[in-house]
Write a structure and sequence with these properties.
The chain is an alpha/beta fold. It contains 9 helices and 9 strands. The chain is globular and about 60 Å long.
Length: 256
């Protein structure tokens, strides 16, 4: 059974939503959650029925969102450090955290190491599309200044993730650019383009709209561009919902 070390204290809202997620996952999948954090606080949100389905790893410290990312290596009793150490020591197979992304990335990279041949890690996110399959976008903030070889490695990791984890047969990989023509892009993307041709699923340059229209399974970009893309999408969705609320309030049924 797969063992997942879970930073139960990381996140904007404390352990409650983390534990809720663990409960939902346990209802759907067989795995062993190792909840890392303040056991007393965790038990406040964990129903009695699930206590025998989890393990606990005590941690008295939490890396807050306002803390420096490098604190993850200095504060060895923090929940994220201890969660990563469980994987490093072979006591867990994976680590999960909804907390400080920078601290998580640094702890995982320096304590667990990277895949052989991969020089820099990437942050990936799943974006919605009009098809039943979501679109994997990477990097969305880990490496802001990339070299072509970094983007190629992101593409290789993304293609493997889409095939093995997302179960997409023959995933399509696209390079985010300012046009779909091969000649479009900046110096970085133009230098990356020929490298990505080595991937079986590479289909060439894609535009931002292609993330949502189902044209591509994996979109590759540098962390600076990807983070702006992610924050813009979040802002657009929030604005649309706000406009819908305003419209509903002004509608005739709402006034009645």
């Amino acid at each position: 059974m797969i063992r997942i070390a879970i930073d139960a204290m990381g996140g904007d809202f404390g352990p409650e939503p983390i534990i809720d997620g663990v409960i939902q996952a346990l209802d759907e999948q067989q795995f062993l959650p190792i909840l890392v954090g303040d056991k007393e606080q965790i038990l406040e949100y964990l129903p009695q029925y699930y206590i025998n389905k989890v393990e606990f790893e005590e941690a008295s410290d939490v890396i807050a969102m306002a803390d420096a990312a490098t604190d993850a290596l200095k504060r060895k009793d923090s929940s994220i450090f201890k969660a990563v150490e469980l994987v490093r020591e072979g006591k867990a197979d994976a680590v999960l955290s909804a907390g400080h992304s920078g601290a998580t990335m640094i702890a995982a990279t320096l304590r667990m190491g990277r895949i052989p041949g991969i020089k820099k890690p990437a942050l990936a996110t799943l974006m919605p599309s009009i098809t039943k399959e979501k679109t994997l976008v990477l990097d969305v903030g880990s490496v802001t200044d990339c070299k072509p070889e970094n983007l190629f490695q992101f593409g290789a990791m993304g293609e493997a993730y889409a095939a093995k984890i997302m179960k997409i047969k023959n995933p399509k990989v696209g390079l985010l650019a300012n046009g779909s023509e091969d000649s479009k892009g900046n110096e970085l993307t133009k230098a990356t383009f020929p490298l990505l041709k080595a991937l079986d699923g590479f289909i060439g340059n894609v535009e931002g709209k292609d993330i949502f229209n189902g044209k591509v399974s994996v979109v590759v970009c540098d962390g600076f561009t990807g983070n702006i893309l992610l924050k813009t999408a979040e802002g657009a969705v929030s604005t649309i919902f706000d406009l819908m609320k305003q419209y509903i309030r002004k509608s005739l049924p709402a006034k009645v």
